[in-house]
Design goal:
Layout lengths: L6 H4 L3 H24 L5 E3 H15 L1 H4 L2 E7 L3 E3 H21 L7 E9 L5 E7 L16 H12 L3 E5 L5 E6 L5
Parallel strand pairs: 2-4
Antiparallel strand pairs: 1-3, 4-5, 5-7, 6-7
Helix pairs in contact: 2-3, 2-5, 3-5, 5-6
Protein backbone atom coordinates (compact mmCIF):
# COMPACT_ATOMS: atom_id res chain seq x y z
CA UNK A 1 0.00 0.00 0.00
CA UNK A 2 1.37 3.42 -0.94
CA UNK A 3 0.79 6.68 0.84
CA UNK A 4 -0.08 9.65 -1.29
CA UNK A 5 1.96 12.76 -0.70
CA UNK A 6 0.04 15.76 0.60
CA UNK A 7 -1.15 17.83 -2.33
CA UNK A 8 1.14 20.74 -1.41
CA UNK A 9 4.20 18.47 -1.81
CA UNK A 10 3.02 17.21 -5.18
CA UNK A 11 2.42 20.75 -6.43
CA UNK A 12 5.72 21.97 -7.92
CA UNK A 13 4.77 25.61 -7.26
CA UNK A 14 4.02 24.96 -3.57
CA UNK A 15 7.18 22.95 -2.87
CA UNK A 16 9.59 25.96 -2.71
CA UNK A 17 7.18 27.78 -0.38
CA UNK A 18 7.07 24.78 1.92
CA UNK A 19 10.87 24.50 1.81
CA UNK A 20 11.25 28.18 2.77
CA UNK A 21 8.93 27.67 5.74
CA UNK A 22 10.86 24.54 6.75
CA UNK A 23 14.14 26.51 6.68
CA UNK A 24 12.60 29.22 8.89
CA UNK A 25 11.42 26.63 11.40
CA UNK A 26 14.81 24.90 11.35
CA UNK A 27 16.60 28.21 11.97
CA UNK A 28 14.49 28.76 15.11
CA UNK A 29 15.03 25.20 16.28
CA UNK A 30 18.79 25.56 15.86
CA UNK A 31 18.82 28.60 18.19
CA UNK A 32 17.23 26.47 20.88
CA UNK A 33 19.62 23.58 20.24
CA UNK A 34 22.57 25.95 20.69
CA UNK A 35 20.97 27.41 23.80
CA UNK A 36 20.58 24.00 25.42
CA UNK A 37 24.20 23.17 24.62
CA UNK A 38 25.50 26.32 26.28
CA UNK A 39 26.48 26.82 29.90
CA UNK A 40 24.28 29.93 30.09
CA UNK A 41 20.69 29.12 29.20
CA UNK A 42 19.90 32.78 28.51
CA UNK A 43 22.55 33.51 25.86
CA UNK A 44 23.38 32.05 22.46
CA UNK A 45 26.86 32.20 20.90
CA UNK A 46 25.59 33.80 17.72
CA UNK A 47 28.78 33.26 15.71
CA UNK A 48 28.62 29.51 16.40
CA UNK A 49 24.91 29.47 15.64
CA UNK A 50 25.38 31.44 12.41
CA UNK A 51 28.05 28.99 11.21
CA UNK A 52 25.74 26.04 11.90
CA UNK A 53 22.77 27.76 10.24
CA UNK A 54 24.77 28.69 7.14
CA UNK A 55 26.18 25.16 6.85
CA UNK A 56 22.61 23.81 7.04
CA UNK A 57 21.40 26.28 4.40
CA UNK A 58 24.31 25.40 2.10
CA UNK A 59 23.35 21.72 2.36
CA UNK A 60 19.67 22.52 1.86
CA UNK A 61 20.45 24.61 -1.25
CA UNK A 62 23.29 22.37 -2.46
CA UNK A 63 22.34 22.82 -6.12
CA UNK A 64 22.98 26.58 -5.92
CA UNK A 65 25.47 26.74 -3.05
CA UNK A 66 27.98 24.24 -4.44
CA UNK A 67 29.63 26.84 -6.70
CA UNK A 68 29.42 29.72 -4.20
CA UNK A 69 32.29 30.63 -1.90
CA UNK A 70 31.06 31.50 1.59
CA UNK A 71 33.24 34.02 3.40
CA UNK A 72 32.64 34.25 7.17
CA UNK A 73 33.91 36.99 9.46
CA UNK A 74 32.06 36.31 12.70
CA UNK A 75 33.19 37.74 16.02
CA UNK A 76 32.14 35.70 19.05
CA UNK A 77 29.06 37.54 20.30
CA UNK A 78 26.55 36.23 22.82
CA UNK A 79 22.95 37.24 22.21
CA UNK A 80 19.85 36.70 24.30
CA UNK A 81 17.33 34.34 22.73
CA UNK A 82 14.84 37.16 22.05
CA UNK A 83 17.48 38.79 19.83
CA UNK A 84 19.14 35.63 18.46
CA UNK A 85 15.92 34.14 17.02
CA UNK A 86 15.00 37.21 14.92
CA UNK A 87 18.65 37.61 13.82
CA UNK A 88 18.73 33.96 12.79
CA UNK A 89 15.53 34.33 10.77
CA UNK A 90 16.90 37.47 9.12
CA UNK A 91 20.15 35.67 8.29
CA UNK A 92 18.13 32.76 6.88
CA UNK A 93 16.16 35.12 4.60
CA UNK A 94 19.07 37.23 3.40
CA UNK A 95 21.41 34.31 2.75
CA UNK A 96 18.64 32.33 1.05
CA UNK A 97 17.78 35.33 -1.14
CA UNK A 98 21.42 35.74 -2.13
CA UNK A 99 21.63 32.08 -3.13
CA UNK A 100 18.36 32.20 -5.08
CA UNK A 101 18.63 35.56 -6.82
CA UNK A 102 22.13 37.05 -6.82
CA UNK A 103 23.89 34.95 -9.40
CA UNK A 104 21.27 33.96 -11.97
CA UNK A 105 22.80 31.38 -14.30
CA UNK A 106 26.34 32.43 -13.41
CA UNK A 107 28.49 29.71 -11.91
CA UNK A 108 30.61 30.83 -9.03
CA UNK A 109 30.27 33.78 -6.78
CA UNK A 110 30.88 34.92 -3.24
CA UNK A 111 28.64 35.58 -0.27
CA UNK A 112 30.19 37.27 2.75
CA UNK A 113 28.53 37.14 6.16
CA UNK A 114 30.02 39.22 8.93
CA UNK A 115 29.17 39.98 12.52
CA UNK A 116 31.10 42.62 14.41
CA UNK A 117 30.73 44.39 17.70
CA UNK A 118 31.83 48.01 17.62
CA UNK A 119 33.37 49.99 20.47
CA UNK A 120 30.04 51.75 21.10
CA UNK A 121 28.44 48.35 21.81
CA UNK A 122 26.47 48.23 18.58
CA UNK A 123 26.45 45.04 16.55
CA UNK A 124 26.64 44.89 12.77
CA UNK A 125 25.39 41.84 10.92
CA UNK A 126 26.02 41.97 7.19
CA UNK A 127 25.18 39.70 4.25
CA UNK A 128 26.86 40.73 1.01
CA UNK A 129 27.14 39.02 -2.35
CA UNK A 130 29.06 39.80 -5.53
CA UNK A 131 26.12 38.99 -7.77
CA UNK A 132 24.04 41.12 -10.09
CA UNK A 133 22.71 43.42 -7.36
CA UNK A 134 19.14 44.35 -6.60
CA UNK A 135 16.81 45.28 -9.44
CA UNK A 136 16.95 49.07 -9.89
CA UNK A 137 13.18 49.39 -9.49
CA UNK A 138 13.04 47.31 -6.28
CA UNK A 139 11.96 49.14 -3.15
CA UNK A 140 12.83 46.36 -0.74
CA UNK A 141 10.83 47.97 2.08
CA UNK A 142 7.66 47.88 -0.06
CA UNK A 143 8.35 44.45 -1.58
CA UNK A 144 5.55 41.93 -1.84
CA UNK A 145 8.10 39.21 -1.07
CA UNK A 146 7.29 37.46 2.21
CA UNK A 147 11.00 37.08 2.95
CA UNK A 148 11.78 40.79 2.64
CA UNK A 149 8.63 41.73 4.56
CA UNK A 150 9.76 39.33 7.28
CA UNK A 151 13.23 40.96 7.34
CA UNK A 152 11.64 44.40 7.75
CA UNK A 153 9.32 43.20 10.53
CA UNK A 154 12.11 41.39 12.41
CA UNK A 155 14.40 44.43 12.15
CA UNK A 156 11.67 46.48 13.81
CA UNK A 157 11.32 43.81 16.49
CA UNK A 158 15.00 44.07 17.50
CA UNK A 159 15.15 47.84 16.85
CA UNK A 160 17.71 47.37 14.09
CA UNK A 161 18.53 49.95 11.49
CA UNK A 162 19.11 48.35 8.13
CA UNK A 163 21.30 49.68 5.35
CA UNK A 164 20.91 48.31 1.84
CA UNK A 165 23.43 48.83 -0.95
CA UNK A 166 23.46 47.47 -4.47
CA UNK A 167 26.72 48.57 -6.04
CA UNK A 168 28.74 45.46 -6.88
CA UNK A 169 26.19 42.91 -5.76
CA UNK A 170 23.76 43.39 -2.89
CA UNK A 171 24.56 44.14 0.73
CA UNK A 172 22.19 44.19 3.69
CA UNK A 173 23.65 45.44 6.99
CA UNK A 174 21.78 45.43 10.29
CA UNK A 175 22.91 47.72 13.08
CA UNK A 176 21.44 46.92 16.46
CA UNK A 177 21.99 46.70 20.21
CA UNK A 178 22.51 43.43 22.05
CA UNK A 179 19.37 43.95 24.26
CA UNK A 180 20.47 41.85 27.20
CA UNK A 181 17.59 42.84 29.48
Amino acid sequence: QTCALPIWLEDAAARPIFQDVAHRVRSMAMVHEKLYQSADLALVDFADYAQSLLAYLCRAHADKASSIHLDLDLEPVSLPVHTAVPCGLILNELFGNALKHAFGDRTGGRICVSLQEHANGQLRLSVQDDGKGLPPDLDWQQSASLGLRLVKMLCRQIHAAIEVASDEGAQFTLIFERHLE
